[in-house]
Amino acid sequence: MEGLKHIAVVVAAVCVLVVTPAYAAGPPAHRPPMAGTRSQLKAVRVLPARDSIRIVFVVQGQIRYESTRTARPARITIDILRTTISPVLTHREILSEHPALIRILIARFAGSTRVTLDLAAAGSYNVYRAQASSQLVVDIKTMAGEAAARAVPPPPPVPPTPSVPMEPAPSTARPTSVNPDPLRLATVRIPWIARRPDMGEFTAARSLPEGVRVAGFRQREPADGSPVSEGTLAYLSYDSENLYALFVCKDEPEKIRSHLTPREEIGGDDQVTVYLDTFHDGRHAYVFASNPSGVQQDGIINEGGDPSYAIDTLWYSQGRRTRDGFVVLIAIPFKSIRFSSESIQEWRIAIGRTIARRGETAFWPYISPRGQGFLPQMGFLEGLELISPGRNVQFTPYGTFTETESRDPDTLRTVRSDQRRAGFDTKVVVKNAVTIDAAVNPDFSEIESNDPQMFVNQRFEVFLPEKRPFFTENAAMFATPINVFFSRRIEDPGFGVKVTARSTRWAIAGLGANDRAVAAQDAAGLFGRGAAVSAARIERNFGDQSKLAVLATERQMGRGSNAVVSVDGRMNLSPLWTISGQAVRSDDVDQNGGRVKGAAYFAGIARNGGHFTYIGSYRDIDGSFRAPLGYVPRVDLRAAEQYASYVWQPDDSGVWSFGPSVSSVVDWDRAGRLQDQWTTAELSLSVAGQIEAHAARNEALELYAGVPFRTRSTSVSLSSTTPAWVSLWASYSRGTGINYSPPAGMAPFLGNTQAVYTWLTLRPAPR
Fold this sequence. Notes:
Helix content is 4%, strand content 49%. The chain is mostly beta strands. Among the domains are: 39-149, Sandwich (Immunoglobulin-like), CATH 2.60.40; 158-382, Immunoglobulin-like, CATH 2.60.40; 636-767. Strand 32 and strand 33 form a beta hairpin. The chain starts with a helix and ends in a 5-residue tail after the last strand.
């Protein structure tokens, strides 16, 4: 029970931390005014008539207002100045079935109350103060012709499916320039729609999708900055529950690559993608991708890293082929993503298309590999108002019960035995951006198996990524250059709580659990004396893509304990150069009371550009450093690593690219003795992203069991995804290597090595 008390204290402390900083970066809260200085909106009354509609706003206090009307989108905006909203006015989105009005939105805005009236078949209007009363009145006339059109449902699509129109009404999205600037950001204002989009209407020749039209997609690869090679349009919209993205893509139908594969396995297919940075910080974004058949792939991308597809979010996708391409509709529920609790949202967005047979990726807005990262080049998404995930609570109980019956061969008696296991997982989202996960005796039996890896003749522990849902959500918040928290170290949790929160400038995470895998057999129950594990992290973002963070972990079991405190940071020196660093201290006490303290340090510098790339790092880990909750395979180490590459593209099309790369690793022990030295030179060739060839030479010096070994190897590899019905990867290497596990009685020795790997996928069907 002492372990559980410790967990409860840690989680409670994290919850206290979460409440305040998670929103500290948002707009400053409006303090209550002195009596008599502000008015208050008390109620809203809607009075429909046959040819008009009246909306009455009941205001306590003086009424001062400003109103405007826009045609695109069709909207009346009224700012009731210096007015707050009564707490009893809980319905701040009012839907209308009147021909002139779609809905009413009420929100706080810049010290005032903003009322937004989304219009349908609306004609003239009038806004005025009612005499001798505290009422603001809006009268809207109905346009008879448009009202009748709105009342009639749209006709169904006419079979067969005709060609998709590619030049509808002008877009309200601001396109990128003809000669794009990699640092120029675009803006799109997304409209609210009254009803969910219908795929049938989108493929009808005479129908234009609702939503803001986005065009001007430009390539990132292979021809950086060139227009997308096939016609591509996107339409963005939202309603009270979902954000919608409709992609209308032209292409030759027989050349489209799309297969009905398991979720996430669409890497070789054509794709459309939506990136959403819901906290507007340029550091983290959701990724939602679909192939033309509607097969999904989703994940999280953190700036400076590769996307993580460990999470599986609930969202919807539909795909349909047309005579001259395909159409994909993506619907992303607001309850499936995290964002701030502000009534008016400001997000970042990028939408992309991948044409697999050309190795082509194109985006709106233009996102160049020569720019400062990927996420900072995303565009701005405006127009999201009064959205919320609602009551987002998930509760998943489970139970397994087995009974076996066998006969004792000696006594011929029947022996019965049973096994029972029960538990639950739950998730609660508070204030949109704070997530609380809890698990009691969680069931991980349905988790997919580890990816195939080579475990034979390995000197160090093989890294296996985390795939358990309780640990995967927001796992990147615990990531550091020196990996001092690796959740797979918690092998068998009987109980666990995790709290994560994020805002524009702050990110906070905390976790508490017990691990029965390290408990004695007689104390391995749900609340037994297993190891009590806790971790907490707080991160502050500042400047342009810079951050500073603190991470603390602790594990206690019996009289033994281990505590680790880490400080890490990252700073951008220029659009292409970034530096990072980390300092860690550990304090380890064994079961006999012996104490060991240690330290570890990391420094790195990186340049990511369109042609030249350089990554350099140095790490220093002393021999007394202990991080049992982390993944630190070696201690007593000083290591310097470097990588440099250059890529040429002979023509502007970017179809051909080739270039050399060099990497090296040198490490010593803390006494200065050389331990290992690796140098690899490689030449790479790529053809349209479809065919890749590599040739490499490796020279190494490795000190193992006190004996220096010199190894060398030569390798070649080839991969191809053309033609579309076959994918091939093959590799061959030959050289010398160390036998780390020799036969009994023999010392490790140097031997000849030869390895051949092949991977082949056949797709006899076109889909």
